[in-house]
Amino acid sequence: MNDAADIAIEFRKVAYELNGGRELLHDVNLQVQRGETLVLLGRSGSGKTTTLKLVNRLLSPTSGEVLVNARSTAQWDVIRLRRMVGYVIQDVGLLPHYTVERNIGLVPSIEGWPAQKIRDRVLELLALVGLESEIAARYPRELSGGQRQRVGVARALAADPPFLLMDEPFGALDPITRAELQKEFVALQARLKKTVVFVTHDLPEALSLGSRIVLLEEGRVIAIHTPTEFLASKQPLASAYVAAFGAGNHWNHL
Amino acid sequence: MSLWHFLNQNRFELFQLTVEHVWLVGVSMFFAVLVGIPLGILVSRWPALNRPVIGGANIIQTIPSLALFGFLLPAPWFGERADRMAILALSLYALLPLIRNTYAGITGVDRSIVEAARGMGLTDRQLLFQVQLPLALGVIIAGVRVATVISVGLATIAAAIGAGGLGEYIFRGLAMVSNQVILAGAIPAALLALLADFTLGQLEKRLTPR
């Protein structure tokens, strides 16, 4: 099999600096395999979100390049690029003046799908993310945090994009809802096989969701490990993470 | 002669002046909205325009109203029709609250919502019409409301340049040193302002997304 074809997203010597000259990312090199869930793990300010936004060109690298399907994001038509990259963020960002149905159906309707097809797709997605179809008529303010986040995931999946970017999507949820959504995400991903880049600062989340974990610190890639490797890692920051989350006791089964 | 008696006796004229007044305010607000809201949108898109545009509108606002009406007197074309002049002056005054509220409304939309919408691949135009404007509508209408209420008051000065409206009574009353005649213009004008405030307030409430 051709190796290059399996790489869905690639960062080549990417740096990103703010206008003032402060560098948020230095020399980031990464490859995301098609169908994997790559987790970006790091503290606040480590550059996780910046890395994520470089993929759908909400930000553009100041040097180096980001390739999506082997084409630099600078060469993609930005709207087409974003339509094939679903985006889920912690604050969800549902449109408060639209019902759940219109929120989920937004991209399909912009893409000109016929109304009935959109309606069917919305119902299909609601079921997929474990929500009742009655919710379609509600407004975001009438939903719980967990429901809102599920709608956010459904919306990102609406036009069936091959890529999914998730920026601490479960960060604002209570622990029980959070665990529930993580579990469902794993099941969903096993079915859908999207190429996912997932940002979190939570090690247990990274271990249970990621096929590989990229550890970021101060805008640099410190280590790239599978969950098993991560737990055994000698890299000081990685082992500090493991120690901080209870000496890894709960995760020995990995 | 009591105020009530005066109003009753002149009810036909009062009605005519009120219609003139509403017409002056209505037409000037129409033009102000037509110019002010697009300017507000423009400013929100290109922050570099912020200072010149909002600064310009601010300067207009600082010109004493009587002087502004006077300035326009020698303007060609306008000079022949006092009502056109009054409408121009009122429109200029209404610009600032419209531009500022449109700008504030659009830039005030929750950043995560804008970010999510961008991330989903909305074009700038789709973002503006499907997200930013609908969510800013309440704030924009609040600007229209403020501008209209100010405009109803200001339009009384239009009578000074012969453009009619309820200001006729006020200036006539001043000349006659008659409180009753002044009040015959001032009270209906105040009532009009309150009515405009209430109506647009209701609209604002209905259009503000919760």
Radius of gyration of chain A from CA coordinates:
18 Å
Name the shape of chain A in a single word.
globular
Total beta-strand segments of chain B: 0
Q: Which band does the percent of strand residues of chain B land in?
A: under 5%
User: Mean pLDDT of chain B, nearest integer?
Assistant: 89
Word description of this protein:
The complex is a heterodimer of chains A (254) and B (210). With 254 residues, chain A is an alpha/beta fold. Chain A has 11 helices and 10 strands. Chain A has helices at residues 3-6, 48-55, 78-83, 100-104, 106-110, 115-128, 145-157, 175-192, 203-209, 227-232, 236-244, and strands spanning 7-17, 23-33, 37-42, 63-68, 71-72, 85-89, 163-167, 195-200, 212-217, 220-225. Chain A has a 6-stranded mixed sheet, with helices on both faces. A 4-stranded antiparallel sheet of chain A has the order 2-1-4-5. The longest helix of chain A has 18 residues, at 175-192. The model of chain A has no long low-confidence stretch (mean pLDDT 90). Chain B is elongated, with a radius of gyration of 20 Å. Chain B is built from 9 helices and no strands. Chain B starts with a helix and ends with a helix. With 210 residues, chain B is an all-alpha fold. Classes of the chains: A alpha/beta (254), B mainly alpha (210). At the A-B interface, α3, β6, α5 and α7 of A face α6 and α7 of B.
